[in-house]
Amino acid sequence: MKNKERMLVMMEERKYKVADIAFAYNNEKLISLLMERGKAIKTLKFDDMRSLEAKMDEVKGEDTDGVPNFEHWTIPACAFVTFETDDAKEMALDLATAYTKLCDKPELVEDDKEREQIHEDFKLIGDHVFDAATVTDAPDPTDIIWENRHFTDKQILYRSLLVFAVCILLLVASFLTLLTIAQGQIRYAVTFPPVDCSNI
């Protein structure tokens, strides 16, 4: 694990520092209700605002997988770590890839104690480990639409295909409209040909 040793040395030398950590939570229901509440306040619909606040209190009391929603919302689902340099980010990604390779081929480390120590070093919160499946390259936190973060890749693909289909339909509709107008102009020109009035 040369990458890990190199990164530890560089972090000790303060060459690679974490600039910021932004946590994300599985609180899309709460965000949706807060957005609706904001719209109600904006349009001065205070009865709707109060009913939404009651709904928020109701949702807070519900359970998700046996855990109360309020507690579930306060546990980070993921973290966006921003390093001060791009090299640090690349080093972290390389480290995660190297650990994934080690998990796939445990024979790379012969000593059992050393292998156990490496697994211990790469443990994160809960059941997560510092591997390529957990640690991925991400956009800047300021570029993320946080209320849309809960959409899965399948849902994003479905929505993209839907948008693509609508664009194709609009293009076909505009083509047919232009074709109809052009045909109308041709029919008009045939029905009423231009006449030279000086010869009449």
Cross-sheet strand order for the largest sheet = 1-4
**Share of β-strand residues:** 5-15%
Tell me the overall shape: flat
Q: Terminal Cα separation, in Å?
A: 99 Å
Structural class: mainly alpha
Describe the sheet with the most strands: 2 strands, antiparallel
Round the mean pLDDT to the nearest integer and report it. 78
What are the secondary-structure elements, in order, as H or E? Answer: HEHHEEHEHHH
Which descriptors would you attach to this protein?
mainly alpha, two-stranded antiparallel sheet, flat
Structure overview:
The chain has 200 residues and is mainly alpha-helical. It has 2 domains: 2-147, no CATH class; 156-199. The chain contains 7 helices and 4 strands. A hairpin with a 2-residue loop joins strand 2 (63-64) and strand 3. Helix 2 packs antiparallel against helix 3 (46-61). The radius of gyration is 30 Å and the shape is flat. The termini are far apart. The model has no long low-confidence stretch (mean pLDDT 78).
